[in-house]
């Protein structure tokens, strides 16, 4: 399954084979897109692995909740689900306590009688700041719920991949700007000693990120 196909992939009816689960996680490790795309694929992967019926990632920005990712994606003309509208209170609690909050779906969806549960998981993302994940799992089996909760908590840690990649991208960008500045200075002053000092500094910075100055 390709990363691009995750968003429209249907929830499997039975247990996901170990090789398929490993493949999904491996795709996240090697994903090379934007932070928003990464989070969308992380959410889709979590929902597939945990058999969650639906899920969302919300960021808190200036006191407002912003939907960063939603699984499955809304179809054209489809309304935002009620459980998402009613999630604010529990998202705040999950973020402030860094604990997993579990509430009956009936607490968020008026008249719901299917025995589902809603899980709120704190998520630390450098790009979005305070954020949380919300998952709807329709099961009344407590043991099954706990197993799926464990999967969601463990896979939430994969968000660190995004932070590490962003850090490397920023280092590469900073190094590129530094090199250009050094090359400009070097061209202005052709004195050999001045040039060697400049390029030596550039190489010293480059060695910290595993690169070498030309």
Please characterize this protein's 3D structure:
- This protein is of the alpha+beta class and 214 residues long.
- The chain has 2 domains: 3-157, GAF domain (Beta-Lactamase); 166-207.
- It is 48% helix and 18% strand.
- It contains 7 helices and 5 strands.
- The chain has helices spanning 18-29, 35-50, 82-85, 88-97, 142-156, 159-188, 192-207, and strands spanning 54-61, 64-71, 101-104, 117-125, 129-137.
- A hairpin with a 2-residue loop joins strand 1 (54-61) and strand 2 (64-71).
- The longest helix is centred in the C-terminal third of the chain and has 30 residues, at 159-188.
Which CATH architecture of the largest domain is right? 2-Layer Sandwich
Query: How far from one another are the termini?
Result: 40 Å
Total strands: the figure is 5
Q: Fill in the CATH topology of the largest domain.
A: Beta-Lactamase
Number of discrete helical segments: 7
Secondary-structure element order, N to C: HHEEHHEEEHHH
Bin the strand percentage: 15-25%
Overall pLDDT metric? 75
Task: Give the proportion of residues in helices.
Answer: 40-55%
Overall radius of gyration: 23 Å
Ranges with pLDDT <50 over ≥5 residues?
none
Number of domains: 2
